[in-house]
Amino acid sequence: MLRLDTGRILLVFCLLACAALLTATPTYAQTGAVQGIVNDAAGKPLEKAQVVIEYTDGINRKYEVKTNKKGEFIQIGLQPGGYKVTATFEGLGSQSFPVRVRLGDPMKVNFALGGGDKGKGGMTKEDAAKAAALKAKFEEGVAASKAGNYDDAIAKFTEASAMVPPPGCFDCQYNIGFNYMQKKDYDQAEAAYLKAIEMRNTYVDAYNGLATVYNAQKKFDKAQEASQKASELASAAGPGSSAGGVDAEYNQGVIDWNAGKIAEAAEHFQKVIFMKPDHAEAHYQLGMALVNQGKLAEAAPMFEKYLQLAPEGQFAATAKGILGSIKK
Fold this sequence. Notes:
Helix content: 40-55%
Low-confidence stretches: 3-29, 116-122, 238-243
Order of helices and strands: HEEEEEEEHHHHHHHHHHH
CATH class of the largest domain: Mainly Alpha
CATH topology of the largest domain: Serine Threonine Protein Phosphatase 5, Tetratricopeptide repeat
Number of helices: 12
Strand content: 15-25%
Largest sheet: 4 strands, antiparallel
CATH architecture of the largest domain: Alpha Horseshoe
Number of strands: 7
């Protein structure tokens, strides 16, 4: 995600003296769904196949459903975010896909289990071994990145990309860009994101990454262009896609904020909250935008929600300070 330009003077404290607190806190009830079909390798529906849907964006949540006579399944009431969906049928192995649930239409996931003399999920043993090696190397990169070992992570993702036939692994390139970004090596980060986009020109997250790079360099026009492209691709992909519309909206909000377009920034942060109600930073940024518009009564619940979602977050001290001033 993008960062705010801290060099711009805010109107926070001069506005705090002239407002009252609105005590009502907004509530959210928007959910998504996953549905699909589980067939065997010949296309025959599999009844009573087990489908496990696991939330991967933080809190552990797991849902289990069974397919009907037509091989169909559906799970509603899912919080928007990333999930791993796995279908299993005795004797035919299992198959998994990562999906991103959004508000609106269900995310559709179809499975084909088994495959004659092939192994688990319809893959040959050789293909399965290659896939396992690639997965292991990629996960080593993820672990290194989470530990802050950015050089090691870059090396692991580079190795993983080399394990994929040309042009290579676009997800690896994205992660290489992300880790260079953490090192503040903006030129290398830009090159990696551009390479990922060259491999997959609809890669929303890579465009978001570019926007982050350009914003950090205060190249706001280029950041605007990259973020706009991400938004367009996310919208075109539809509500059931795995595109990163949340990040695109958040990035656009930060870009507008840095450009002094406070009202426009607020609209983008509101959209982020609509799509992902537990997005802590969006609540904080919307609160700041409302404060700068003199809407302190509306801003207070945003800061309260941020502190509820991220009590030890990077903006926690500022949020507490502003809330204290409003309540006076």
